[in-house]
Amino acid sequence: MAEDKDSAEAIVAEVHKKISGAFDVFDHEFNKTVDVREIGTIIRSLGCFPNEGELHDVIAEIEEEEPTGYIRFEKFLPTMTKVLMERKFRPIPEDLLLQAFEVLDKQKKGHLELEELTKYMTQEGEPFTQEEMEEMLSAALDPDKNVIFYKDFVSMMTVDDPR
Amino acid sequence: MGCGTSVTIDNQARRLTTDKTAKNPPSPALTMKAAILIQRWYRRYIARLEMRQRYTWNIFQSIEYAGEQDQLQLSSFFNFMLDNFTQLNGNGPDLISHLLDPVVDPWSDRERQTKYEQITVPESYSGPHLTFPLTVSHTNALLSAFKEQQPLHGRYMLQLLHETKKLLKQMPNVIHLSTTYAKEITICGDLHGRLDDLLLIFYKNGLPSAETPYVFNGDFVDRGKKSVEVIILLFAYLLLYPDHMTLNRGNHEDHIMNLRYGFTKEVMQKYKTHGRDILLLIQDVFSLLPIATIIDNKVLIVHGGISDMTDLDFLSSIERHKVKSALRLPRRSLNYLEVTGSSRQGQSESPGCRQGSCSSSSSLCSPRRSSRLSPRPCLSPSMPSPTDALQVPFLDSFTALPVPQPPREELEWKQVVDLLWSDPKSQPGCSPNTFRGGGRYFGPDVTHRLLERHGMSLLIRSHECKQEGYELCHDGQVITIFSASNYYEEGSNRGAYIKLGRELLPRFFQYQVSRITRKLTLTQRVNVAEGSAVRALQEKLFAHRSELMAAFQQYDTSNSGKIFLQ
Description:
Chain A: GO terms for molecular function: calcium ion binding. The structure holds two protein chains of two kinds. Chain A has helices at about 1-25, 40-45, 50-60, 75-85, 95-105, 115-125, 130-140, 150-155, and strands at about 35, 70, 110-115, 145-150.
């Protein structure tokens, strides 16, 4: 029993350290606060995959009563710890991602046309901004054929993902 | 909240496969879910890239500022030693400060001019020949020469600097400019010896002229390899169009900074015969550069920033040429020392580090202690200096001295240092800039108060590298403009300049000097920059490995070869 408690504490300490590390990268004034707009990046860099709606919920939970534009570490730590311990917003396995692309590839061509992907990403779901779209295309678009071979794209992008 | 969606996704996994086998087109709901999945995944991927980009930046910046902070610490120590231990006799000349203090020029202006004219230029010299007053053909010749890697002869360099010094002496500390309906003023930030960036700006925006006036906001030299060429061009255009060219002083227009950051070395390498004379002249020229520029009485331009002690009226009255270096305080008598009791403890380490109390009276301060990638640790905790009496170490005890008002020279020096070294911060207030070791951090309230007091609407400053070449803060009241692209590494950042017309609405122009023509994707850029940062860090670790080993061993009392992170 005591052993379990020790290892549980050790795990929590480990998690706290990770959260602290990610938070500090954006703490420009070295006073344990970060701009609220960077919270998404911080959460995602810790291995979580919230969608925009879920992200807004988390932010609502950790914001001040009177939103200042800043998030304090004291509020961020407990919420983020819970998220990590409960394994919320789990990463998306590669094969599921591939299936998602296949759903969009209605004609089962094995690739998506530039206009097709753009339409889906900027009009469906939680639409991309123009910048996000351009950035994705710069990496995904095959410059010769002007299409997106999504299978290759997914493999390339998931290369350095954590387990 | 989160849990709910995850469950849906898991169900989705099963449903996706079933739909695939069925030959019907996927339902709109399914399409939407697939889209969200992809978007969610992609955003996470980008966030990781941003994180890597951010800490790469942090590494570069920390290494950069750590160096500068070292410099200030060292200078602080030097100053302390010079002030306290070189005048114990009372009246004797002190040889040590002669090394660092500006040399009094025994020659008159006329004599110097003749002396330079007598320097012979060999027949074999194929570079530009300058005669004064300069004409457009001279500046064009300089541009062509530098593009062909052809240097300017030492004699012309000396003459150019001599003329520049004469011109600058006539200028006030604060330059006032006005826009007209016909033309916009172009404002550029740090160049740091990047000739390519300067040439690119001239190419994109036009050469300096009556139609294209420029303001260059400091830090023309150091770090880059062509600081000499950069200042030759800037000074040449200044002489050619004194009404359409403005140069503000930056914190690197400082001969002691130049010793450390490469400019002095570059001059000595490029001018083997006349290097020393050139450096002495440059010292004077730098200290004569104006400190601030004001456009239409509405836009303030300074290199670093401001502080809660900034006083533009006082600034106009100071003798700016006396502030030769931020790192060499004006001489003070033994009466006035800002030494507190805590410095006594520091004796086993470097006794000179001035324990900066966080009052606005000191502009140099000890480093902030943080667990982060922070440079050397603090000596001893800084204590607020007592306001009614100073405990001054004297021989082996303390003597109490009354606190006099700081002499005028010191106040003048502080004004200049604050303007050349400060950085904006997003939270209100004004605190010592511990990251740099000099100047202040100023909040939006400080900006607002100063601008309001003088009826101004905008502060343009430089001093900090920004990824996009420019950045707004303090509700749009402060713009940082930085003109050296790829400052840390190929692809690390863009450079930018501002154009300001009659309406005083800034327009930004960005660029990036590059040796590769193909555009790198975000991923590639992050990889390159990260690799470079890690290498730079490795170099630092390697260079300081014996110190690191010693420090680690202090914690590892059992000699196990391991230590635990706190």
